[in-house]
């Protein structure tokens, strides 16, 4: 089971570097196990397996339980967006014979980590005629890759004196797409056809290969991510190195636990949402009404039909694990952590009683009664877990989707996988933590 889970997980990461790619995989996987779009049902009963998706970037999966829905659900909630670079609306330009793609970074990144890496372009281009083009360039062995250049150290005296947050500016994170050949007499201030010849060549490739015009970038959703696949890390292969493990490590293990859930007493649910890295905003973020609307679709198909009271009771009576990652203790930066309250790679799933930063600002604070019930469940099933915070109190902090679920009155606790080098282009997790998280999520759904 362990090897199968880890290999499937790595495959999920390789094929799911964007929210759309993750949702597409989850739908295909779920339908293969008997799940159907809720719209295919006029009525629902215990044992039915359904899903609701929104804009191909958020999904909620349900296995209907034998108990009335208004008694509440057991919910696993994760996010499937990750820090990256997004392509701007008018991105293509040529500067001194090099063609660039202009970007805007998404989420909390260290900008300097994204230079001189092989990068890939994933996403979709929607055209005026109603057709769309799926884009994935840089992942196959014969694909070109792309890169953001950096200045050579010989000329970097001024750059090296600047702070880490400043020496690479956001406007410098532009992708090299190609280049032209300058002539002896051609200067960088020339305009018109001579200056734009390399850009025209790139546009010609885009037109021939994808049928994309320059104006189509205005209705495109293109994401720049590290090119390459998830790999085993270390001679003992105890660790995984991959892009997007925050929070796809928890999304994968949560979805797998839900899809494999059979005959639960309480209705089991897994929700995978978008936009967590920028505040859970928009129509596909947890701050939207997506989850509430998804549960409403379930209520409307139960005996008795839709009832606002049933919906509210179902939400407020639920228990949820906010399946999100925690910072793994970093021995090379130990002074940033309270070691007694840190999570360690290989220590099992992490329970984070409260999130937020500096005085619990923006926190979701779980009730001790709920935590005690979960401790008993995991101890009974011999599943490893650890209790931790993100780092020292005054160092900073972070949030998850937990507080947005807690507003319904349900019990919520952050519970996920430890990640080293979180938000870096390549993040590190432990194989053992992934298997323990999966086991914990699966046990939770049976409560």
Keywords:
6-stranded antiparallel β-sheet, alpha/beta, 10 helices, globular, 447 residues
Average pLDDT over all residues:
93
Helix content: 25-40%
Alpha-carbon distance between the termini? 23 Å
Reading side by side through the largest sheet, how are the strands ordered? 1-2-3-13-4-14-20-16-18
Number of DSSP helical runs: 10
> What profile does the largest beta sheet have?
9 strands, mixed
Count of β-strands = 22
Task: Specify Rg, calculated over alpha carbons.
Answer: 24 Å
**Judging from the principal axes of the Cα atoms, what is the shape?**
globular
Strand content: 15-25%
In the predicted model, the low-confidence regions spanning at least 5 consecutive residues are none
State the secondary-structure class.
Answer: alpha/beta
Structure in a nutshell:
It is built from ten helices and 22 strands.
């Amino acid at each position: 089971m362990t090897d199968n889970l880890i290999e499937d997980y790595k495959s999920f990461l390789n094929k799911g570097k964007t929210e759309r790619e993750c949702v597409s995989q989850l739908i295909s996987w779920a339908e293969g196990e008997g799940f159907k779009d809720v719209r295919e049902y006029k009525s629902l009963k215990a044992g039915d397996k359904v899903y609701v998706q929104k804009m191909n970037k958020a999904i909620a999966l349900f296995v209907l339980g034998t108990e009335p829905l208004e008694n509440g659900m057991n919910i696993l909630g994760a996010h499937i967006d990750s820090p990256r670079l997004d392509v701007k609306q008018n991105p293509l330009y040529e500067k001194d014979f090099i063609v660039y793609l202009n970007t805007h970074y998404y989420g909390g990144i260290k900008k300097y980590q994204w230079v001189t890496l092989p990068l890939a372009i994933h996403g979709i281009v929607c055209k005026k005629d109603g057709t769309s083009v799926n884009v994935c360039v840089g992942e196959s062995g014969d694909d070109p890759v792309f890169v953001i250049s950096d200045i050579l150290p010989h000329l970097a005296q001024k750059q090296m004196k600047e702070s880490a947050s400043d020496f690479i500016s956001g406007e410098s994170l532009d992708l090299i797409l190609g280049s032209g050949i300058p002539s002896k007499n051609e200067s960088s201030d020339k305009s018109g056809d001579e200056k734009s010849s390399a850009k025209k060549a790139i546009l010609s490739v885009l037109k021939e290969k994808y049928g994309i015009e320059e104006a189509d970038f205005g209705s495109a959703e293109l994401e720049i991510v590290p090119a390459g696949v998830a790999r085993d890390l270390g001679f003992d292969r105890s660790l995984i190195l991959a892009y997007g493990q925050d929070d796809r490590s928890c999304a994968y293990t949560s979805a797998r636990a839900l899809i494999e859930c059979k005959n639960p007493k309480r209705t089991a649910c897994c929700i995978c949402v978008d936009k967590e890295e920028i505040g859970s905003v928009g129509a596909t973020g947890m701050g939207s009404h997506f989850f509430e609307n998804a549960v409403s679709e379930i209520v409307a198909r139960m005996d008795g039909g839709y009832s606002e009271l049933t919906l509210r009771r179902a939400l407020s009576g639920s228990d949820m694990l906010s399946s999100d990652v925690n910072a793994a203790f970093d021995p090379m930066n130990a002074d940033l952590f309270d070691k007694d309250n840190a999570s360690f790679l290989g220590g099992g799933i992490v329970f984070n009683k409260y999130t937020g930063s500096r005085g619990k600002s923006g926190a979701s604070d779980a009730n001790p009664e709920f935590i005690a019930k979960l401790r008993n469940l995991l101890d009974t099933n011999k599943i490893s877990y650890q209790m931790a915070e993100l780092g020292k109190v005054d160092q900073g902090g972070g949030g998850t989707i937990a507080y947005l679920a807690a507003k319904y009155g349900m019990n919520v606790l952050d519970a996920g996988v430890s990640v080293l080098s979180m938000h870096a282009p390549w993040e590190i997790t432990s194989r053992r933590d992934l298997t323990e998280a999966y086991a914990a999520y699966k046990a939770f759904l049976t409560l």
